[in-house]
Design goal:
- Helices cover about 35% and strands about 20% of the residues.
- The chain is built from two helices and three strands, in the order βββαα.
- A three-stranded antiparallel sheet has the order 1-2-3.
- A hairpin with a 6-residue loop joins β1 and β2.
- The termini are far apart.
Length: about 80
């Protein structure tokens, strides 16, 4: 996680129910209230980089890594959806 620049884990467990959610990344966005796979300066940018949820830290880290790679590849190739 450190190599990716991620410093934060957000874990939600509603009274030990089955619906556990875990997110891995960095708190970012304009108010630093969104957990994302990369540092973002605007909320619009952060919305595209939101960390994917998972049921445990390992799966959350793997999903976040995959999303970060996809965003990196998209930035290298240029984003056709970019305004």
């Amino acid at each position: 996680m450190h190599k990716m620049g991620w410093t934060d884990i957000w874990y939600i467990d509603k009274h030990f129910s089955v619906s556990r959610k875990c997110f891995v990344g960095i708190w970012t966005g304009e108010q630093r209230d969104l957990i994302c796979v990369k540092k973002c300066d605007t909320n619009k940018e952060a919305e595209k980089a939101l960390s994917p949820e998972a049921s445990n830290i390992f799966i959350a880290a793997v999903r976040a890594y995959i999303k970060a790679r996809e965003l990196f590849k998209e930035s290298l190739n240029g984003n056709p959806n970019k305004e």
